[in-house]
Amino acid sequence: MIRLFVDVDLKAAARFTPSPEQAHYLVRVMRLGLDGKLLVFNGRDGEWLARLAEISKRGCSLTVESRVRPQASCPDVELIVALVKRPRLEAIIEKAAELGVRRVRLTVTERTNADRANVARLGAIAVEAAEQTGRLDAPIIVAPEPLARILATWGADRRLMFCDEAGDAPPAAVALPAAGAGPWAVLVGPEGGFSDSERGVIRALSAATPVSLGPRILRADTAAIAALSLWQSALGDWRGA
Ligand code: SAH
Predict the structure, then answer these.
(1) Ligand 1-lining residues (CB < 6 angstroms)
(2) Chain segment 47-77, per-residue pLDDT in tens
(3) Among 2, 79, 102, 152, which one has the highest count of C-beta atoms within 10 angstroms of its own C-beta?
(4) Which domains are delineated in the chain?
(5) 93 contacts 202 by C-beta, under 8 angstroms
């Protein structure tokens, strides 16, 4: 069943026009006919069955019918990822959405080789992954910020899983359960890794939990996937109902 992330309030009998891209996708690509059904969600009102109520040259309109799932949110985990080359960064966004992050904060560090990112494009990738993966919200993508500023304004209520390639951090299977459940962030560095001074500042944070991802050096995308999988398994929604 097609799932679309929409930005309208969802309630019975609501009628709305999807975006031109979404209309094209429904009618031309998926060839959904009149009265065809699909699922819609907006991150607030749960997931609703909808019907293709009208097709015209200008586009189409959808009628909302019944709610099939109440709103539920992913665990409060976010990914902080240093800017890496675009294809790999786009892959990280897609995997982070499937792995249930609420937010992705992009960061510029001493060794990142880019200081800009196409946040709108990354947002579209996150939405597409959210539609595919069956979640009821879409991850928020936050524009690049310097790592120093992220750390300087760190909130006391959120733990920081510091994926430290230096090799002396404890295994995730030990460090995560010991640190306990609650709001978390997962930090992954750039291809060049973290500098020693960055490592010092991160480890000085009382909220930081340094974690090893094993004896081999993983690429940033592999590290993000592995770290988020370990977190979801230890503290998130992979622990079963
Ligand atoms: N070029 C660096 C490695 C950078 S890998 C070097 O050779 O040391 C990119 C990021 O992935 C790292 O900054 C870290 O956050 C994460 N990472 C990769 N392998 C890891 C490991 N074995 N343990 C913990 N974090 C790791």
Answers:
(1) 163-165, 188-189, 191-194, 212-214, 216-218, 220, 223
(2) 999 999 999 888 899 999 999 999 999 999 9
(3) 79
(4) 3-69 (2.40.240.20), 77-234 (3.40.1280.10)
(5) no
